[in-house]
Amino acid sequence: KVSGGCTSNEALLLLRCCGSFLTDEKRNVRADLSEKLWSYFNSTNVEFDTSHYNALLKNRLDNEGPEFQPSEFLAMTEENGIDANRVTFQHLIAKFCSTGDIQGATTILEYMKEQKMSVTENVFHSLIVGHCRADDFENAKGVLTIMKDSGVDVGPDSRMIYALELARAGKEYKKELDKGTAEGVKWTDHDFFKLILQLLEKKDHEAAAEIASML
User: Fold this and answer.
1) What's the per-residue H, E or C state across 81-143?
2) Concatenated DSSP letters for 147-159?
3) Distance in angstroms (rounded) separating the CA atoms of residues 160 and 181
4) Most buried among 11, 39, 155, 161, using CB within 10 Å?
């Protein structure tokens, strides 16, 4: 229960604590807490800026809920006089890509380019996920090539995201690990833990145990 009001900075800090940082809580609990805080801050007239909206958006992505449409979120920011920035668009691309909506993601990406906003590594990662969830693994792999051509480092994080999506779809992911190792990628326990969690979500306990032996 929250009462007594808080400052704009305190509200931002609390919102940022309701996503993946709150590791001890399940996603649905974090999502519920984030939305309740947002409603409370609105009811107490906390002064919001773009950072608050980005924090709410990040929570909805981290917590995989509640469901929302990117267009509706943008309409909400405009209605409240908030200017979306590069981080906002980056998160919206991630939302489109989480459902395999490459067309929606591309529309946002083109707008970012028109506004001369930098395309970060996170955007490329979202596009890898988007293509995979649209069942287009060839183009997902092609994003890694585009990254290289754009001068963006294709390190363990980028390769692991592709491997995770392969595992999620029940496809061969070990070759991607082996290829990365052959090209000098230094996999860490953190990388392997992410893969173990993905395999456990698929209830592939045998494969998860095999990866655990690599820790």
Assistant:
1) CCCCCHHHHHHHHHHHHHCCCHHHHHHHHHHHHHCCCCCCHHHHHHHHHHHHHCCCHHHHHHH
2) HHHTT----HHHH
3) 12
4) 11
Rg (CA), the chain: 19
**Where is average pLDDT lowest: 22-36, 95-109, 145-159?**
145-159
127 vs 101: CA distance, rounded Å = 10
pLDDT of residue 60: 95
Contact 137, 131 (CB under 8 A): yes
Three-state secondary structure call for residue 80: coil
Q: Dihedral sign, CA of 192, 148, 182, 166? A: positive
Specify the pTM: 0.88
